[in-house]
């Protein structure tokens, strides 16, 4: 966890809480070795989320383009 702490502006307690939430959601896996815990991403659930998001990407792209055109038109830019 020490190397993770160095990468973020968290207290050790806050980082532990975040990691517990991620573990509970199945997004990280923890392995205990002695007094240390080693964390790694659980790729399967993340892949499922990415696949689900990709299914909606064309819809979002179209809607965001329409919103951009509307805002440009409303603010007098082209």
Structure in words:
65% of the residues lie in helices and 15% in strands. The chain is an alpha+beta fold. The protein folds into 2 domains: 2-41, no CATH class; 43-78. Strands 1-2 form a two-stranded antiparallel ribbon.
Domains, number: 2
Helical proportion?
A: 55-70%
Strand pairing plus helix content: what structural class? alpha+beta
Radius of gyration: 20 Å
Our count of helices gives 3
Strand order of the largest sheet: 1-2
What integer is the average pLDDT? 89
The major sheet is characterized as: 2 strands, antiparallel
Oligomer: single chain
Run of helices and strands: HHEEH
Give unreliable regions as ranges.
none
Strand content: 15-25%
Number of strands: 2
- Apparent shape: elongated
Q: What distance separates the N and C termini? A: 50 Å
Topology of this protein?
Elements: H1 2-7, H2 12-24, E1 28-33, E2 36-41, H3 43-74
Jot down its keywords.
single chain; 78 residues; alpha+beta; two-stranded antiparallel sheet; 2 strands
Task: Put the structure in a nutshell.
The protein has 78 residues and is of the alpha+beta class. The chain has two domains: 2-41, no CATH class; 43-78. 65% of the residues lie in helices and 15% in strands.
């Amino acid at each position: 966890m020490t190397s993770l702490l160095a990468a973020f502006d968290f207290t050790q307690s806050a980082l532990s809480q975040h990691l517990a939430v991620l573990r509970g959601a199945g997004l990280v896996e923890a392995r205990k070795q002695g007094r240390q815990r080693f964390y790694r991403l659980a790729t399967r659930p993340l892949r499922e989320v990415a696949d689900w998001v990709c299914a909606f990407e064309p819809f979002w792209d179209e809607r965001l383009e329409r919103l951009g055109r509307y805002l440009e038109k409303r603010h007098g830019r082209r």
